[in-house]
Automatic annotation (TrEMBL):
It comes from Aminobacter anthyllidis. This is LysR family transcriptional regulator. Keywords: DNA-binding, Transcription, Transcription regulation. GO terms for molecular function: DNA-binding transcription factor activity; transcription cis-regulatory region binding. The lineage of its organism: Bacteria, Pseudomonadati, Pseudomonadota, Alphaproteobacteria, Hyphomicrobiales. The keyword Electron transport does not apply. PANTHER family: HTH-TYPE TRANSCRIPTIONAL REGULATOR (PTHR30126), LYSR FAMILY TRANSCRIPTIONAL REGULATOR (PTHR30126:SF91). Residues 5-62 form the HTH lysR-type domain.
């Protein structure tokens, strides 16, 4: 019989696993360590299997614990979603809506969806936060926003995701007077590309600490925003990847050119897909739901 299992026991189990120790689990749940140990002991007694080995400095998951961890997480996600849905029943219109947006999202599509939101719900205020890389996801996980719009594919178990559609691609570009502007017939090799300074945007969140994405040159300058990155590339300081919507006019005028390199593909571009994210335990109100609907429509229309 498993009727005596409690959600509290399962939350404690997951907290210990995610924290890495009984002490860390206690800190996460703001409890004393003895209460955590007691809850885990009761859970093991109810399940009749050991969840942790306790011979080392830190408790290690047993094979049984590893198998049951996914079940515990799935149950807690379902319960959180049920509570969120219950809180959302009969919920009134939001006073304001905080939205985190990856700056590579085409601004015309975003502005169009926000225009639609304003027309439908003029009393709702909007706080728009432009956060690059995985900072938008980080803000959502930490409840600093209600919705996040991003092209990042990393996910969290507390986050629901909906594909909005293709966003304009990232393209590798440099100034027309930059040495990379005139490529050999086969394109620049990765070794040749690494001889030139690359301008990259740093992720302000801790979620990619120590990791680099799309960085091919050992020599880099790091900036905090796309506008600064574009200005440095236009000046010929280095090369880099930028969303096509941001550079298509300069490409058409010949101020910028695409970098042709075997390491980044024949078209020197990376396809991007936009996603809308929200927490499963935070119900979406009428304004958030309307914005979600309009984003789907706008991305579908490309405007």
């Amino acid at each position: 019989m498993l009727d005596n299992l409690t959600l509290d026991q399962m939350r404690t189990f997951v907290a210990v696993v995610e924290g890495g120790s009984f002490r860390a689990g206690a800190a996460r749940l703001s409890r004393v360590q003895s209460a955590i140990s007691h809850a885990i002991g009761n859970l093991e007694a109810e399940l009749k299997v050991p969840l942790f080995t306790r011979t080392g400095r830190k408790p290690e998951l047993t094979a049984e614990g590893q198998a049951l961890l996914a079940d515990a997480r799935a149950i807690l996600i379902k319960v959180d979603a049920m509570r969120a849905r219950a809180r959302g029943l009969g919920q009134g219109l939001e006073l304001s809506l905080a939205v985190a947006v990856d700056p590579v999202i085409p601004p015309g599509i975003l502005a169009g969806a926000l225009f639609d939101l304003r027309a439908e719900h003029p009393s709702v205020g909007v706080a728009l936060k432009t956060l690059p890389m995985r900072a938008a996801l980080h803000a959502l996980i930490n409840r600093h926003c209600t919705l996040a719009i991003t092209t990042d594919t990393q996910r969290d178990s507390l986050v629901e995701a909906e594909c909005l559609g293709p966003a304009q691609p990232f393209v590798a570009i440099c100034a027309a007077h930059h040495p990379l502007a005139t490529a050999p017939a086969a394109g620049w090799s990765a070794v040749e590309l690494s001889d030139h300074l690359q301008i990259v945007v740093s992720d302000p969140s801790p979620m990619t600490e120590g990791l680099d994405f799309g960085v091919l040159s050992p020599g880099t300058w790091r900036v905090s925003d796309l506008a600064t990155k574009l200005a440095l590339i236009q000046a010929g300081v280095g090369w880099g990847n930028l969303p096509l919507w941001m550079v298509d006019a300069d490409l058409a005028r010949g101020v910028l050119v695409r970098v042709t390199a075997t390491a980044i593909g024949a078209q020197a571009e990376t396809a991007l897909t936009a996603y809308l994210l929200w927490r499963i335990d935070q119900p979406l109100g009428p304004a958030a739901l309307h914005l979600r609907e309009r984003l789907v429509v706008r991305f579908g229309q490309g405007v």
